[in-house]
Design goal:
binds adenosine-5'-diphosphate, single chain, 38% helix, alpha/beta, 477 residues
């Protein structure tokens, strides 16, 4: 594949024809080249987004809904092509890739419906000669920066509400996975948006990031990625006072109480831990199990986890490769550290390189028992297929351990008790809580975190507010 930039309604090579190579993470062989934008390419993209904004902001919600519905239909029609590219560059199993395309499309569908529901207010005045109007207007051109773990859904989840609100966008996907975005932009090109409404920039992240951050015409940045880069963007945003949404790392606890339905708890663990090989910001990172049921839970879990197959995402497997060596090393470090400090490895525990010297990095599903608070895995996001089991004695202790982290993205709890479910979900310091389920993300719900997991929400009526600003108009008649 040879992927290009998309600026002002045209696919184009980068200035000086600069490119970078994209690899398949399973074979580690090159699958193509992608254009690497220069500063002047980025400036051209900002000019285009700004010029287009001046007219796109005047379109009405019904017009934007028509465009989004067309885009939705194109995504559905081409889901197999999008998914095949995704599996090739990201490594996830093809069936999961199809799931991601449908999930991404569901946001386009949802915001096509929402575009026509943007509304302001007419306030009761203190003096009868006054009329007090509140309008909701699109915030301006938006920069969207996203990671490799969900090569399509991460940026579509931001782009759909932005376009519905009347904002123009510049998308910067991760360097590991640009081709899914290129394919998506081919579809977008057919959806009928005016030139300049959507741009695609790929290449050097710091260079592209700096142009977007420094230009005062970009009024909002929506970022998903590491807490480290999120903090950098937050400091850069101060210069132009742009609005930011940051969806950063997580360290999700999954609590299994003694009154849990163990079948649901095991299924929830599988759903929230092994999807995308654990490379998910809302993935369970710590499993807290009441000491009285830990044996029964672990036994049932092992039966299911033993069935999971790891390998080439293009074949019938449950998990693909780890994205790169750094990710693989982090998982290995977490597991080795836990075992060295006294945890017991019940399954897996050692990663390997497929094809020994040339292939990508695979990590088998791993279960660790006897994990304790001082171990690395109990404190840092692993981003891999490892279940660390920690035991607790009381509800208070479970909640305390669960909240004992700087992160606050998602948490899960399994209990059949209504009072306990209510108490615990209120006590957990997280942006999203799953009760008796490991699957919580859906287009109509607010996705996002608290504390070091960032701020801002994606999805539902809440998500579009990130791209709207208030204007108050007082009229004396
Ligand atoms: P991950 O560890 O998941 O790759 P990163 O935060 O490094 O998370 O990357 C998420 C996104 O942020 C990617 O698109 C990456 O290219 C981009 N990125 C990385 N560094 C910067 C930067 N200095 N400025 C702007 N974007 C960046």
């Amino acid at each position: 594949m040879n992927g290009r930039l998309y600026i002002k309604g045209e696919f184009k090579d980068a200035q000086f024809n600069r490119k970078f190579t994209v690899n398949n993470p399973y074979t580690l062989s090159a699958i193509g080249e992608q254009a690497s934008a220069s500063v002047s390419d980025c400036e051209e993209a900002v000019d285009a987004a700004y010029d287009a904004f001046c007219s796109y902001k005047k379109s009405n919600g019904y017009e934007r809904a028509v465009l989004l519905r067309k885009l939705y239909a194109l995504m559905v029609e081409h889901e197999s092509e999008l998914a095949a590219i995704m599996t090739e560059e990201q490594g996830k199993p093809y069936t999961e890739a199809i799931g991601e395309v449908r999930y991404a499309a569901s946001y386009v569908q949802w915001y096509a419906e929402e575009a026509i529901r943007i509304k302001g207010d007419l306030l009761e005045p203190t003096h009868s000669s006054m009329r007090l109007k509140v309008l909701k207007e699109p915030i301006g051109p938006v920069g969207i920066i996203t990671p490799w773990n969900f090569p399509l859904a991460m940026f579509v989840r931001k782009m759909a509400p932005a376009l519905a609100a009347g904002c123009t966008v510049i998308v910067k996907p991760a360097e590991q996975t640009p081709f899914t975005a290129v394919k998506f932009f081919e579809l977008l090109d057919r959806a009928g948006f005016d030139k300049g409404v959507c741009q695609l920039l790929t290449g050097d992240a710091a260079l592209i990031g700096k142009v977007l951050m420094d230009d005062e015409r970009i009024r909002k940045i929506s970022f998903t990625g590491s807490t480290e880069v999120g903090k950098l963007l937050a400091s850069q945003a101060g210069k132009t006072l742009k609005k930011l949404s940051l969806e950063l790392g997580g360290h999700a606890p999954l609590i299994v109480f003694e009154d849990a339905d163990l079948e649901k708890a095991v299924q929830g663990t599988l759903d929230s831990k092994f999807r995308n090989c654990g490379q998910v910001c809302i993935a369970t990172n710590r499993v807290l199990v009441h000491e009285s049921i830990v044996e029964a839970y672990t036994e049932r879990l092992l039966v299911k986890v033993r069935e999971l197959k790891v390998g080439n995402g293009q074949e019938a497997v449950d998990m693909g490769p780890i994205i790169d060596e750094a990710g693989f090393d982090k998982i290995s470090r977490h597991v080795d550290d836990a075992v060295n400090r006294g945890a017991t490895c019940l399954l897996g525990g050692k990663g390997f390189r497929q094809d020994v010297t040339e292939g990508g990095f695979l990590y088998p599903p791993t279960v660790l028992a006897g994990v304790t608070g001082e171990m690395l895995i109990a404190n840092e996001e692993t981003f891999g297929p490892v279940v660390p089991i920690i035991t607790f004695k009381t509800e208070e202790e479970a909640v305390r351990i669960a909240n004992d982290t700087p992160y606050g993205l998602s948490a899960y709890a399994f209990t059949e008790g209504l009072s306990r479910a209510t108490r615990v979900s209120e006590a957990l310091e997280y942006g999203m809580i799953g009760i008796n389920t490991g699957r919580i993300s859906t287009a109509q719900a607010p996705f996002g975190g608290v504390k070091m997991s960032g701020y801002g929400r994606e999805g539902g009526t809440y998500g579009i507010e990130e791209y709207l600003q208030l204007k108050y108009i007082g009229i004396e008649i």
